[in-house]
Amino acid sequence: MEKTIALVAHDREKKDLIEWVEFNWGTLSSCRLVCTGTTGRLVKKALKEKGIDCDIEMLKSGPLGGDVELSARITEGKIDYLIFFWDPMEPQPHDVDVKALLRIATLYNVPSACNRATADFLISSPLFNSEYKPILKDYSEYLKRRIEF
Questions:
Q1: In 3-state terms, what secondary structure has residue 35?
Q2: Contact predicate 30/97, CB 8 Å
Q3: How many CB atoms lie within 10 A of CB 41?
Q4: pLDDT over 90 percentage in the chain
Q5: What's the burial of 56, exposed, middle or buried (CB within 10 Å: 0-12/13-18/19+)?
Q6: What is the DSSP letter of 87?
Q7: What is the pLDDT of residues 49-90, one digit of tens each?
Q8: Catalytic residue among 11, 55, 67, 138
Q9: What CA–CA distance (Å, rounded) separates 43 from 92?
């Protein structure tokens, strides 16, 4: 029952995410990690400096499409948790992609954390290591709607 965790962090939040990953490595080591490019490289480097060799799947950097790649993975049911330390004080060149990623995670009911406190609660939940299937809303009525011009 391997969980797939997506890890993303904006530039000023990367240090915080790396510290969080290091602190929680005992739990995360049994998970499959998928990261946007720069975040993944920095997490892998920090863990290697601690003597931990880990396999991290790295997507493109967020501004180059990594957030969109993660959104697609969520729609395919390939992401169990999203840990996204985003910077609320700094506009991003790919804000539209960031908003889309958070919207898709919400739409597909993927447990998500956007800051360290929420990530701590998520990873320490008894549900984290259990077989948990989020309930998906039925959007069939939405898809049947017609827009008349």
A1: strand
A2: no
A3: 14
A4: 73
A5: middle
A6: -
A7: 999 999 999 999 988 889 999 999 999 999 999 999 998 888
A8: 67
A9: 21
The Cα 25–Cα 52 span in angstroms is: 9
pTM for this model (two decimals)? 0.91
Residue whose structure tokens are 């447990």: 111
Do 47 and 18 meet the contact criterion of CB atoms below 8 Å apart?
A: no
With tokens 């790919």, the residue in question is 94
Residue count of the chain: 149
3-state secondary structure (DSSP) of residue 21 = helix
One-letter identity of residue 110: V
So what's the pLDDT on residue 146? 64
- Phi first, then psi: what are they for 29, rounded to 5°? -65, -20
d(CA 134, CA 136): 6
Instruction: Fill in the DSSP letter of residue 31.
Output: S
Active site residue 55: no
Domains of the chain: 4-144 (3.40.50.1380)
